[in-house]
Design brief:
With about 400 residues, the protein is an alpha/beta fold. The protein has two domains: about 5-320, TIM Barrel, CATH 3.20.20.70; about 330-390, Alpha-Beta Plaits (2-Layer Sandwich). About 30% of the residues lie in helices and about 20% in strands. The chain is built from 13 helices and 18 strands. It has helices spanning about 30-35, 85-95, 115-125, 150, 155-165, 185-190, 235-250, 265-270, 280-285, 290-305, 310-315, 345-355, 380-385, and strands at about 5-10, 10-15, 15-20, 40-45, 60-65, 70-75, 100-105, 130-135, 170-175, 195-200, 205, 230, 255, 275-280, 335, 360-365, 365-370, 390. The chain has an eight-stranded parallel β-barrel, surrounded by eight helices. The chain has a four-stranded antiparallel beta sheet with strand order 5-6-12-11, with no helix packed on it. α8 crosses α10. The two termini are about 35 Å apart. About 45% of the residues are buried. Bound molecules: flavin mononucleotide (FMN). Flavin mononucleotide binds near residues 20 and 282.
Length: about 400
């Protein structure tokens, strides 16, 4: 029998599904409900010093939909509106009621040693399991010199990690921003400053576009907008890449996230090095109840693969991600056309011609392949509307 139980730096998770720091963790009663419904842990919506101003814009969300399904999300929301006392009391209450659940305090302060210390010292007195340093919020906070403004510089990230590590009595995870040229520059720097692990990724900075009728921004606040943080399915390739890059350079634990909407996504995050995974946007769109399918799907998958626990799955794909110049350039694939599916629409031949190779042609309603011309790029199999083309070695 496989188990979803897992342990990270001595913190026991009954399952690897954790609510990310965001609106679903903005209230004690919400976290309480999520725990009742089966989530393994929660990262509290980022806690800040009580005097840090937090004035929200309205509206603050926008989305990209495909067939009415949200595939991309953007927010310009700020941090927790609750006081430090609210969260200290809340953590005590939640831990007493749910002793087997993991509670991580996400925190952010101005770049001031005393302010960071004060926050940690207050939270040290609670049964919180770990800290997550939010060095990565891409909107609102960077204008104050914090959030992503911290996580894009090695110097300030290192400095603050050191301040927190000096006083923290629980493990310290640094939440990294993908909005940098090389995420490992920051991950290596905070590891040198004794961070205990990483959380990645926070949202990807983006612009949600313009309404063609009104010519106003899609996320429009009284006629204007601001760059915001993108999340959901559209950011998953970025999140997976960042987690893999961090893992290739470190053995520390990683709380992986970014576009996880089902158990299959979670499998991929674990396979590239995540110890546990966090979910935000999918919960905001479909509610806490998704935990049921996440847990059963992952458990069934482990059993089908003959794996005992997620540690058997962790890192399994990491050695398969190598440098471009190390790829086997003698390896070729060619399109194989399933004649029972092909309707001779000619899309593959047109695209192949217009995108360099002209290796496919339509002769008497049949697709012919010129093997000499084919470079095995796989574009034909991607554009075929009938899924009639597979690439074969
Ligand atoms: C509305 C909203 C608010 C968020 N607030 C926070 C926050 O307070 N602190 C934080 O570290 N991350 C915050 N995030 C980022 C998420 O924790 C997460 O890193 C990101 O959304 C990627 O995961 P996802 O694709 O599952 O949403 C927020 C995200 C959203 C969508």
């Amino acid at each position: 029998m496989a188990t979803l139980k897992t342990s990270v730096l001595g913190i026991e998770f009954e399952n690897p599904f954790v609510l990310a720091s965001a609106p679903p963790t903005a209230l004690v009663e919400s976290i309480d409900k999520a725990f009742e419904m089966g989530w393994g842990g929660a990262v509290i919506k980022t806690i800040t010093p009580d005097d840090l101003e937090m004035v929200e814009a309205s509206p603050r969300y926008a989305s990209i939909k495909e067939k009415n399904k949200v595939i991309g999300f953007q927010n310009i929301e700020l941090l927790s509106h609750k006081t430090i006392k609210y969260w200290c009391d809340g953590i005590r209450y939640l831990k007493e009621k749910h002793p087997t659940k993991v509670i991580i305090a996400s925190i952010m302060s101005p770049v001031d040693r005393n302010a960071w210390r004060e926050l940690v010292l207050r939270l040290n007195e609670t049964p919180v399991d770990a800290y997550e340093l939010n060095f990565s919020c891409p909107h609102g906070m960077p204008e104050k010199g914090i959030g992503m403004a911290i996580g894009t510089t090695t110097e300030i990230s290192t400095l603050i990690t050191g301040w927190v590590k000096d006083v923290a009595t629980k493990p310290v995870f640094v939440k990294l921003t993908p909005n940098v040229a090389d995420i490992t520059r920051i991950s290596k720097a905070v590891e040198r400053a004794n961070a205990d692990g990483f959380a990645a990724i926070n949202t990807v900075q983006g612009f949600m576009g313009i309404n063609l009728d009104t010519l106003e921004p899609n996320l429009c606040i009284d006629g204007c907008t601001t760059f915001g943080g993108c999340s959901g399915e559209i950011v998953r390739p970025i999140g997976l890449r960042c987690v893999a890059q961090i893992r290739q350079n470190s053995n520390l634990p990683i709380l992986g996230m970014g576009g996880i909407s089902n158990w299959q996504d979670a499998v991929q995050y674990i396979a590239v090095g995540s110890d546990v995974v966090q979910v935000c946007t999918e919960v905001m769109i479909n509610g806490y109840g998704i935990i049921k399918g996440l847990k059963s799907g992952l458990l069934n998958y482990l059993e089908e693969k003959g794996m005992n626990s997620i540690s058997d799955l962790k890192n399994i794909a990491i050695d398969k991600i190598i440098a471009h110049n190390a790829l086997n350039k003698n390896y070729f694939v060619n399109p194989n056309i399933d004649k029972t599916k092909c309707v001779a629409c000619g899309k593959c031949t047109k695209i192949c011609e217009e995108s360099e190779y002209s290796a496919l042609s339509l002769v008497e309603r049949e697709i012919k392949l010129d093997k000499e011309k084919c470079q095995g790029c796989s574009l034909c199999s991607i554009v075929c509307p009938q899924n009639a083309i597979s690439m074969e070695h």
